[in-house]
Amino acid sequence: MKYDPIKKSLGKVFNQSIFLRKLLYYLLDLLLLRSWYIKKILKKWAKQQNGHRNILDAGSGFGQYTYFLQSLNKNWSITGVDVKQEQIDDCNNFFKKAGYSQVKFEYGDLTNYTPAQKFDLILCVDVMEHIEEDVSVFNNYGKILNEGGLLLISTPSDLGGSDVHDEHDSSFIDEHVRDGYNVEDIKTKIFNAGFKKVEPVYSYGRFGSISWKISMKFPIMMLNFSKLFFIILPLYYIIVFPIAFILNTLDLNSVNKSGTGLIVKAFN
Predict the structure, then answer these.
(1) In total, how many domains does the chain have?
(2) What Å distances lie between residue 133 and 177, 178, 230, 256, CA to CA?
(3) What is the mean pLDDT of residues 112-125?
(4) CA angle 148-149-153, nearest 5°?
C-alpha cells in the first residue's frame, strides 16, 4: 500500500492556509495513537527542563511533532531534518509564515547528519522502519545527543507492526524497509551505540490495534482505491472517531504485554 501519495494529497488540501495546516496537526494528534504516547512523554520531559534546549525532530515529515514541541517552550531551538527537500521547503514556508522563529528545517541524512551543536532531545517518530542502515543512525544519535539527553523513538514492533503477522504477510506500507523491531534487538543496537539506559514499551496493544484498523488502515485502503473517498471521509470519521477515541484512551492507560508498536526511551 502506497502511503506517500496520500500524504501529498492531504498536503495539497491543508496547505491552503495557516489555519488549515494547524487543523491538520490537530486532527493527526487526535487520530494517531502514537501521538498520544509521544505527547504524554514529551509533556513530562518538558516539566523537568529549565532554560534553553536544543531539539532535533529526526525525520520531521509534515512537521507535526515540531509544531507540538514549539508549543511546549518558546525558549527551545528546534531543528527538523528530513531527506525529502519538498517536505523541508514546505515546513520552512509554513513555520516562517506562522511566526515560529525558533524553528528551522534542513536536509539531512540521519546516518551521517552532523549538526553545528548537540541536542538535548532527539525525537524520531515512525522513521527507523524506513532506514536500512539503522545501526549507523543509532550510532549517530549517540554522537549528537548531549550527556543526559533523551532519545525518543516510535516504531512498529515485530508483533504485527506494519500489519505483518506471519512470514507470508507483506508490509501494509510499501515504503517500509523492515516490518518491525524485536524489543531485544532494538535495545541491543541502542546500547551498542553508547546509550546508558534503554526503556522500551509496547504501544498499539489489543485496544490500540483495533483503533488503528478502523481509524487508519481502512481509510488508507479506501483512498488507495480511489481519491473520491476523500469526499466521504468526514462522515466516516464522525461515526468511527468516538470508538477510536475510547480505544486509544484504553490503550494509553494499559500496560501492554505486547503490541504492534514500540515506544523507546533511551538516555545518553
Answers:
(1) 1
(2) 10, 11, 36, 29
(3) 96
(4) 135
Contacts of 104 (CB under 8 A, 6+ apart): 78, 79, 80, 92, 95
CATH number at residue 178: 3.40.50.150
**Which residue segment(s) compose the domain that 187 sits in?**
4-267
Cα–Cα distance, 187 to 198 (Å, whole number): 6
For residue 101, which of 62, 65, 68, 75 has the smallest C-alpha distance?
75
Query: pTM (2 decimals)?
Result: 0.89
Question: What distance in Å separates the CA atoms of residue 112 and residue 101, rounded to the nearest whole number?
Answer: 26
Q: What is the CA radius of gyration of the chain?
A: 18
Q: What is the distance, to the nearest Å, from the Cα of residue 14 to the centroid of all Cα atoms in its chain?
A: 19
pLDDT tens digits, 71-84: 999 999 999 999 99
Q: In the predicted model, is pLDDT for residue 165 greater than 50?
A: no
CA–CA separation, 151 and 148 (whole Å): 10
